[in-house]
Amino acid sequence: MPMPALLKKISRKSLRKRTQSSSSAEPIPQLPDTTFRAQTLPNPSRATIHVVVQDINVNKPTPPTPITPIASNALVPPQDDLSKDLHSAWVSATTAPKVSKADKILLTMENGVAGAMAEQAKGDTIMTTVKTALETVGALEVIESGVNAFMEGMPYSLDEVAKLHPFIGVAVMAFKAVWALEQKRRDNDKKIIALHMEMKDMMAVLTQLKNVKDVEEVAPDGSTIKGRMQEILKATADDIKACANACDTYVKKKLIVKVIKGPLWEGKLAKFAANFTKHRSEFEFALSIHTAVGIDTANKTLGDVEQTTLQMNLKIDMMMKIFQQAVSPEQMQMTRMIEAKGGQGVVNNDKALKELNDFEIKSMGAQVSSSAHGNKTAKPFELEDLKEELHTTVEAALESNMMAFSRKFEVQKRQIIDELSRVIEHEGDRVISAVTAGPHDRIIDPGWRGSVKARHFVMALRDHFQENSHSDDKKHQHAHIEKSDQWALEYINVVRLQPISEAFDDDASGFVTVAEVNAFTTHRPLGWSLPHWVAYWAIGHHQAMAEYVTKILEILAKMFAIVKNVLPANKSAVNMYLEGIYVGVYTLSSSVNGCYVNDALQERFASYVASEEARIRTNLDAVQYDIDDISTILLAKGVLTECYALPLIYLLLERHFEIFRVAQTRRLHNDELWDAVDTLQYVFDSVQTRVAMLQSIFKQQKLDVAATLKSFSFGLYEYQNDLNLLWDAKLVQEAEFPDFPYDDSLEKQDIDVDKILNYTPDQEDLDFDAYKPRAEIQAVDSQVLPDCESVLNLWHGFTYWPKTSQWPSAGMISMHLAPSSVDGQVQYFTASDRANRTDFKIAGQCQVGEEPGTVSVTFKRTFPARFPTQYFAGTWDAATDTLSGTVGLEEDLATHTAVFVFKHMDQQHMCFLPAPVELESNRAQARWRFAIAAVVHDLRRARWSWPFFQERRDNRRRFIELYIRSSAASTRFGTELSLAENQEMLRLKKTFTTADCRFIHSVAEQRLRDTTDHSANCDSCGGGIGGARISCLQCQMVDTFNTVDFCEKPNCMKERCKRDDMQKVHQPHHDLMKVRRVIHTRLFGKTYRDAKAALAHARSLLDAEEAGQVEPEEEVAQPLSAISPASLTISIPKFRPTSMLASPAPAPSGPSCANCSKSISMPCWYCVQCGESTFICWECDMKEEISFGTHDFHGHDLVRVAEVVEEKDLTVEERLGDLEERFAKHEQAVTERLTQLENSVDARLVRVENLLEQLVLKLVT
Predict the structure, then answer these.
(1) What does DSSP assign to residue 222?
(2) Tens-digit pLDDT profile for residues 459-480
(3) Four-point Cα dihedral 413, 415, 420, 426, nearest 10
(4) H or E element: which one contains 816?
(5) Closest to 422 (Cα-Cα) out of 350, 352, 523
């Protein structure tokens, strides 16, 4: 039901009640023996807690709110013409309003608001007072406490006003939704709290609308209050939503980003406070004309409007001062670290950024991953993600977040409406009235002044139900148990005391409060009795959890079974997903205690389980199954509690499994499964937060945490509390999971791919668009200065960073500058294009230079993400038709350390243009080399010579090989590039045109995506392992199930290695296993057990062959009926020369290679999965890909069969030799490092000398 309609319904219902009560001759019946009153309880934390408590057998009438009525004849209006025209306003001002229910509720709020409004008229005095208060200690605490105190009644007060005047519902609903979302956050930033204080002050003005009886009444200016305020309210609702989106975006930023880009974000947030001040003034002005404040006040308000701009500026200054004070200790420490590492310069320092990010992870306690249990395949640090956040503007971040926030915003509004509907349906339904007639006498705490021990409450409730199950006493008729609910009493007993207590005691404090009981009964399904509802939590919830566990484990099994069927382009993403979510999902689902599911009994609870699942599914649909923070989880579940963890995980897995099915036939977007992993990680984070809270509570209660969590919520958090109970290395190695017989035809076939996927599938990875003809620039009705016309053209060029470099720092850049506008003698231009791997935009200006034949040009180059803005400043020289100058990351030319060169030249020729440093050293020689290289290139291309195309192919292959190992790649495989290799890659980049560079980069990225990523490094060379991973079957890590791993290079497998977590040194003769698939945690133990068994079988075959005991495989006789007609066909061999028949090749004795049929000699490989005994020689395995029989090159594992070497303890001499070898390697590494450091220092000194020379020249001139 829409919000305005619902508010009207509530208003009409209240009106009918009021009318009936005034016209009825019968007295209003009183509640029997029960009243409620508000009581303030002291709190050791100095906060004030307001709770509702119950007085037994007390009937105290509530004193009416003191109201001073104004008699209608107390004031006589003047009789002049102006007063007659304003008669209606005068009557409204001098007539006492009727005291309604809404008036009583709002009058207390009105007194405080009226006082605040009076103080607001003082203007500058108030601002001065606020500024003074901000300088005192504790100002932020006062603001925070003020928000919390006022918000206790604020939403309800606004609801009462909205019932009377539904047209304000648009702003009220926006405010309530934003406040509800903010309440769901785990950590409220003080900046956000201060901003919500301003929002609250603005909304408080609307409570004065209670004095307006007729919103259609025409004011002296001819307008109505409804017409005047509707547009203001709509703008207010938009600003509230925009402010909430900004807050939502800000709080999700990393601490590093908040510190480095803090001033930008604080300025953006402060502007919202100014907007709220403006809307507040608009509300006051509108109300002053229509409420009973008189003409003088209206004129005064008109004068105050002129001060609105001043007030907005003062408000921005005030908020900026608050923001400066609202700095957390973590932010202060991060600020000091950033300043120590160079301030804003860390943005371009990858090493410093990684150190800062590691500190943030450690300080915020976010380093919760499976690596703590020995998993070596945890997700690596994503430096690119951090750089993307740092280089994203505030406006772009807000725009990017708005779509996701809008979905959460709409879900929250719908939940508010649903809550209002549920309150109406359950009005007056409270368990207290059913229990006060007897069970409270059995509670040990006499009188029950707010809370009672959970166990005592449940036992009293049980006795109450049993005593009244057959009672016919009219006094207890309201508590009589119907016969249809007699079955429920069987499950409300001492055996199930704990789950019933947990259902009431949501905070696990051991006490049940009135609020918790009322909340419990409010959520009771319609049509269910209280015994039915209690029985569900006694037994039905456990059975529902058991069913969800079964469903979750089945989906996990299907996911692992479907991996082999997904497209190669999707396997990396699928493997990443499984490795990212498996530990968390399996930990929760495996912890639940076993339970026999009584199907007949569960049918009684099926309607509620199905409705809750449908509710969560609807909320997930609304946010498109994309959870971006903890508040979104609360929206999806409704309540952050263990009751909804398994249903939520099941529904998410169900959707993700459908994505897996799509991955069999469609190419997924890179972010599709990344977002899925992030969604479940937020769920795991919320579970971990809940466990941490329970651990703290149980410790305070002096309980055994492990024992308590073993039974709490049917053991759901037992393994989460102690992960070693499930993920101990020995348990993982012994784990056994049967293969799941997956059949896609048994699944749903009517799935809508567009609804399942959040990103467009089947996007082309290869950049074929790079070779499309360049589109003509659309003619723009813009003036072009004649002197700047030559600059507005197509340019090709390079940037050299630093300026002394011989090779460009990036591939060729092409840009077509188009005119945008003219301002006097300044020509403005823009451009947009793509280079290397990213799009970019150009915006700049040019004007006639100081020297004849030159044009001064400045522009900036911006990127969508990941790269900082580049600032170019240079000159176009008409004599050489060259655009050249300096480039840097700031507008200040003194900070520019790079140069650029652009020309009107064919791209092929541009590849041979000399670098600026070459032209400076010997211009004539550099130009001569350029001319020769360009002419030779044209001749070779015109002749289509094979060496020309061979060179292009070799350059492309070599670049891709180096790129895969470079830090520029999205995923790095292999050892890091040396300085010489890095220079080689830059040299190759210069040989590519813009189109070639774009396409080759896309080819390299596609190859990275198709390569199996094991998320592991070689223990010999240290490079990332991609493709084939070789693991030792003998080396055992200390308390982990990590392995010793090598890449496929032969030299790495021959190395000895030692790590701190190894029990012994790895030896080259150890047994090895080669895998080309990702070994997930679920399959770890089975994979290694099967590999060891296969290796033992292979050695037994070879030992038997050496002993001459190999027996030929027996052929199984087939019945005649089983032989197909095709097999009975007789084929006549062709005639062959006698020489070919004379000496047939002898058949190899013993095992042979399944690929080349040559005799096997050790070392060799043996397939683990092939049904028949399959040996593969060393030479065949070195080929790119082999295929024979049923062997799966990428899916089957191999074990190395080599001579068995007996292990023995090392002698003292061998140990010393090992130490000498390790010291030699260390010395070599230190030497290489010092050499690199010296080269870096020399380069920096050269740059410093150049800067000094430039400075001296400037001083001289």
Answers:
(1) S
(2) 888 887 777 665 555 444 444 5
(3) 180
(4) strand 813-816
(5) 523
Instruction: For residue 767, give both structure tokens.
Output: 């950049």
- Give CA–CA dist 669/652, Å, rounded: 18
- Number of other residues whose CB lies within 10 A of the CB of residue 722: 15
Q: Angle between the 308-325 and 190-204 helix axes, to the nearest 10 degrees?
A: 150
Q: What is the DSSP string of 282-327?
A: HHHHHHHHHSTTHHHHHHHHHHHHTTHHHHHHHHHHHHHHHHHH--
pLDDT at 513 over 50: yes
Separation between Cα atoms, residue 215 and residue 229, nearest integer Å: 10
Between CA 766 and CA 1001 the distance in angstroms is 9
Q: Which residues contact 1060 (CB under 8 A, 6 or more apart)?
A: none
- Mean pLDDT, all residues of the chain: 76
Q: Please state at what angle helix 154-164 crosses helix 3-23, rounded to 10 degrees.
A: 80
In 3D space, the residue among 211, 217, 261 whose CA is nearest the CA of residue 95 turns out to be 211
CB 1199 within 8 A of CB 1098: yes
- For residue 267, with 0-12 CB atoms within 10 Å meaning exposed, 13-18 middle and 19 or more buried, which class applies? middle
Burial of 160 (0-12, 13-18, 19+ CB in 10 A): buried
Spatial distance between the Cα atoms of 754 and 733, rounded to a whole number of angstroms: 41
Residue 285 CB-density burial (10 A; 0-12 exposed, 13-18 middle, 19+ buried): middle
What 8-state DSSP symbol labels residue 821? E
- Rounded Cα distance between 1049 and 1077, Å, is 17
Q: What's the rounded Cα separation, in Å, for the pair 1062 and 1040?
A: 10
Rounded-to-integer distance, Cα 288 and Cα 221, Å: 12
Name the nearest CA neighbour of 811 among 676, 604, 997, 1076. Answer: 997
How crowded is the C-beta side of 614, counted as CA atoms within 13 Å? Answer: 6
Q: Which residues contact 654 (CB under 8 A, 6 or more apart)?
A: 555
Helices (H), 701-781: 705-711, 718-721, 724-727, 729-734, 753-756
- The phi, psi pair for 276, rounded to 5°, reads -65, -40
Q: Rounded to two decimals, what is the model's pTM?
A: 0.70
Residue with tokens 């895969």: 964
**pLDDT of 143-158, one tens digit each?**
545 444 444 545 556 7
Residue pair 489/481 in contact (Cβ under 8 Å)? The answer is yes
Q: What percent of the chain has pLDDT over 90?
A: 34
DSSP notation for 1196-1235? S-EEEE-------PPPHHHHHHHHHHHHHHHHHHHHHHHH
Q: Which helix (H) or strand (E) holds 418?
A: helix 394-425
Find all residues with CB under 8 Å of 3, minimum gap 6, and list them: 169, 173, 413, 416, 417
- Name the pLDDT band for 13 (thresholds 50, 70, 90): very low
Q: Which of 1032, 1025, 1048 is nearest to 1199 (CA)?
A: 1032
pLDDT average, residue stretch 774-790 = 76
Tell me how far the alpha carbon of residue 84 is from its chain's centroid. 64
How far apart are alpha carbons 94 and 76 in whole angstroms?
A: 9
Mean pLDDT across the stretch 774-783?
67
Residue found under tokens 């203001």: 232
Q: Is the pLDDT of residue 1094 over 90?
A: yes
The CA angle 382-388-390, to the nearest 5 degrees, is 110
CA–CA distance, 1032 with 1055 (Å, rounded to integer): 12
Q: Is the pLDDT of residue 138 over 80?
A: no
Structure tokens of 1080? 């997930």
Sheet holding 1164-1167, edge to edge: 1045-1046, 1029-1032, 1072-1075, 1198-1201, 1164-1167, 1175-1176
Rounded to an integer, what is the distance from CA 71 to the centroid of its chain? 62
Confidence of residue 571 (pLDDT cuts 50, 70, 90): very high
